[in-house]
Each structure stands twice: as C-alpha cells, then as structure tokens.
Design a protein that fits this description.
The protein is α+β, with helices and mostly antiparallel strands. It is built from two helices and eleven strands. Helices cover 14% and strands 25% of the residues.
Length: 191
C-alpha cells in the first residue's frame, strides 16, 4: 500500500472513531452525566428493634412503650427527618417531625408519651411490631432509606428483605390487629 493510501485509511478510521464516539448515548461514553447515578447511602439507618415488649402483653401504655424501633444518624451532620416515615408490613405508618443531630439516635415507641430528643411516641393504643415483620424507613420523597426484617425474613441477606412499597397515605396507622404468635425478641444491634 502506498504512503498516501495509508494516510487516507488512517484518516478515515480516525474520523469514523470520532463519529462513533459522538453518536454514543451519554451513558455509554464512560462518563456519568447525572442521569444514572446510584442513590447515595444515607447516614440515617435503623438500629436496634424491640418488637416484643418484655413481660406480659397486656396492652398497657407501659407495655406498648416497651416496643420500639431505634433510628440512628451515623453521620456528623444533623438530618431533618420531617416527613420521613417508619412503616411496618401492614403499612401502619409513623411520620417524623424532628431534626436528628449527628451521631445520635431516637427511639420510636409505640404507645403514648411526651416526645424528647431521644424518645418519640406514636401515640398508639395497639401493638405495631409483630413477631414476623419488616420495619421500613423512607425519606420525605418516599425513597426507601433502610429496612430491617425479623421472623420469617431473617434468612435472606439485607438486599433480599421484603419491601412492602410506599405507603399510600400518611393519615396515620391502619390497625389490622396483632400477630397471635409473638415469639419475643429484639432485632438489630451491631452492624
């Protein structure tokens, strides 16, 4: 092949490569243009869960408040939880109205009480967390932030846990009764 033929071939190949790169979709060019970014992992997570209050389940306010879910901010900065929700599998929902300081936790109790920095109350008169259940924490836009399962779900890994979907309404809990077989226990702890 002559020298000029090689130059023409090289020029045609280089031009073709440039055209092909320009024709690629934005995500195929190897760069992220903000369209397909994975969700950032939240500093707010579910911690320990006491789903069976110790002692007799007599429905007293004391017994209801011994059932709780801990929400922890592992980050250094405060997070505004206003509009965030905590939901069980029956789609009973608690909506937060607080700012959680960095590196701190709040316990969400089932019964009636006066909210403090470390404890908030759902003001419920019935138990929420069953012996087989999933607690799901969602942000104010309805995106799942974290979930924790126990009972029949505990066999799967974190990614395999059931997600009941977004709660349709934020007008309070729907009381579907209690699971009859409370096997007792606490879930969570060191992760």
């Amino acid at each position: 092949m002559s020298r000029s033929a090689r130059r023409i071939t090289a020029t045609v190949l280089a031009s073709g490569a440039l055209l092909a790169a320009a024709a690629l979709p934005a995500t195929a060019d190897g760069r992220d243009h903000g369209q397909n970014r994975p969700a950032q992992r939240s500093a707010v997570v579910l911690g320990e869960i006491q789903y069976d209050s110790p002692g007799r389940d007599n429905g007293s306010n004391r017994s209801l408040n011994a059932e709780w879910v801990t929400v922890t901010n592992t980050g250094r900065r405060a997070v505004d939880l206003r509009g965030w929700t905590l939901t069980d599998e029956s789609r009973r929902t608690y909506e937060f109205d607080l700012r959680l300081p960095g590196r701190s936790s709040v316990r969400v109790h089932t019964g009636v009480g006066r909210d403090t920095r470390h404890d908030v109350y759902q003001d419920r008169r019935h138990y929420v967390w069953d012996s087989r259940d999933t607690a799901t924490l969602r942000d104010s836009r309805g995106y799942k932030v974290d979930s924790e399962s126990w009972g029949r779900h505990r066999d799967g890994g974190r990614d395999g846990w059931r997600d009941g979907g977004r709660d349709g309404g934020r007008d309070g809990w729907r009381d579907n009764g209690r699971d009859g077989g409370r096997d007792g226990g606490q879930r969570g702890g060191n992760r």
